[in-house]
Design goal:
This protein has helices at about 25-30, 50-60, 80-85, 135-145, 165-175, 220-230, 240-245, 285-290, 380-385, and strands at about 35-40, 40-45, 60-65, 70-75, 100, 105, 110-115, 115-120, 125-130, 150, 155-160, 185-190, 195-200, 210-215, 235-240, 295-305, 315-320, 325-335, 340-345, 355-360, 365-370. With about 375 residues, the chain is of the alpha+beta class.
Length: about 375
């Protein structure tokens, strides 16, 4: 059962223009002390100790409300063609039951979003989005596409079950056969007649799963069921870990990229298939960028000085020989690595491994060096291993 402590949501609310998640009340009951706004919805960002939350994730398992990952559903006779129109990655071999990480770009090659795509049927796709209004972009494209599609936001709200104990917890909750669920695949399940989709995906760089609830009225039931099953097995209520995602060099939209950044600057060439026949949005722009090359790159940093408390609230300037050459997009202190680490976009001359730089944060100047990324588990073996 949930702890008896309760919180008055109204004391934290900004009003009805920001939506509650189906799990907001449960997260507050289980210790959430702070909320943020993402995709016009509340998301728990604090359970009292972000370092302990990190250790819970990497040593045990955490349950996170990520209903803010809204689904843009594309259906209709031309759904596959339309979805490819939005995506520079070749989707022709994507099977029903498969997920793919994709990047969406505008006509100039700027990044709109980096969702996980789920193929539910030959004529039904979900884009599980990061923090931007993809549904408005998709609807605008659809109106002018001449394709027979319907674009909606369905009643779908994911939870993330992440960490080394997540597989055992998931199997105890939904069936031992899920032990064989492959990376970036999903299956359908039910809880008391409520439909779910369970995918082996997540935003943690650890072994993990996402459980997509397809009826928001059952949010409390799903949360409490998972905590009842998982609590004795090491499951903790928690929030997505900035420490772990930066260790894994996982991109965060609006932090590490936006419309001013293109996929080649991010080193995401593998997600751009310029040789396919499909005329996806941004194809001509991306071809020009590939031909001319980029003048800046996305890099990993180690920052000297005192351990960073919290994370950066703004982009910090980076200098080389007294000249500004880029900016820090994300930074955090890793208790495991015992270093302040960061992600940044810098000019090519400052992007080589080993380059010594200076970062200016509100407390002063920090000696900085460009290092390989990801900072931990560079081959993603924890998340992808069988």
């Amino acid at each position: 059962m949930a702890p008896s402590q309760t919180h008055e949501f109204a004391q934290l609310s900004f009003g009805t223009q920001v939506r509650k998640s189906p799990y907001t009340d449960a997260a507050l009951r289980w210790g959430a002390t702070g909320l943020s706004v993402y995709n016009h919805m509340y998301i728990p960002r604090d359970f009292g100790d972000h370092v302990q939350n990190f250790w819970n994730l990497v040593n045990d398992a955490i349950l996170c409300d990520v209903a803010v990952e809204r689904q843009v559903e594309i259906t209709g006779p031309d759904a596959a063609e339309f979805t490819q129109l939005l995506c520079p990655r070749d989707l022709s071999t994507c099977a029903v039951g498969q997920c793919k990480y994709v990047i969406l770009v505008d006509q100039d090659g700027g990044v709109i979003n980096d969702p996980i795509l789920l193929k539910l049927a030959e004529d039904r796709f979900w884009l599980s989005i990061a923090d931007s209004d993809v549904i408005l972009w998709a609807k605008g494209v659809a109106v002018n596409s001449g394709l027979d599609v319907t674009i909606t936001e369905p009643d779908v709200s994911p939870l993330q079950l992440q960490g080394p104990k997540s597989r055992d917890i998931l199997c105890a909750a939904f069936g031992e056969d899920l032990r064989d669920l492959k990376y970036y695949r999903f299956v359908e399940r039910e809880l008391n007649g409520v439909p779910l989709i369970i995918s082996r995906t997540g935003w943690s760089s650890e072994l993990g799963y996402e459980i997509f609830l397809r009826d928001g009225s059952a949010g409390d039931d799903l949360w409490e069921y998972l905590m009842e099953i998982g609590g004795p097995m090491g499951l903790h209520p928690g929030h997505t870990s900035s420490i772990r995602r930066i260790e894994g060099a996982m991109l965060s939209y609006q932090a590490d990229m936006d419309l001013s950044v293109n996929p080649f600057e991010l080193g995401m060439d593998r997600l751009i298939d310029l040789d396919i026949e499909a005329a996806f949005i941004g194809k001509d722009a991306l071809r020009r960028i590939r031909e001319t090359g980029v003048s800046r790159r996305f890099v990993g940093l180690e920052l000297g000085g005192e351990p960073l408390v919290g994370s950066n609230a703004e982009n910090w300037a980076i200098e080389l020989d007294g000249e500004t050459v880029g900016y820090v997009t994300s930074a955090v202190y890793s208790p495991r690595l015992e270093k302040t680490i960061g992600l940044a976009i810098v000019e090519n001359d400052a992007a080589e491994i080993g380059t010594e730089l200076v970062t200016h944060d509100p407390a002063g100047a920090r000696p900085t060096v460009v290092v390989p990324k990801p900072f931990y588990d560079p081959k993603k073996s924890l998340a992808a291993s069988s």
